[in-house]
Design brief:
Layout lengths: L6 H24 L3 H20 L8
Length: about 60
């Protein structure tokens, strides 16, 4: 005879595995610390300021 399976437990276990898989994907996508986000933002602002500083002025019309 086969093993008796509680369908509620099986369903909940499968849902838990799916939730963990979704959480892992979200951690990879959104899981940056505040320090990392601020560092990236500061680098972008510094690069933009440096690029603006190297632009030539437009001649007067």
């Amino acid at each position: 005879m086969g093993e008796i399976v509680n369908l509620n437990r099986a369903r909940k276990a499968r849902a838990k595995v799916d939730a963990r898989r979704t959480a892992e994907a979200n951690r990879l996508t959104f899981g940056r610390t505040k320090a990392e986000r601020l560092t990236t933002q500061a680098e972008r602002e510094r690069d933009a300021a440096q690029l603006d500083g190297h632009k030539r002025d437009k001649p007067d019309a």
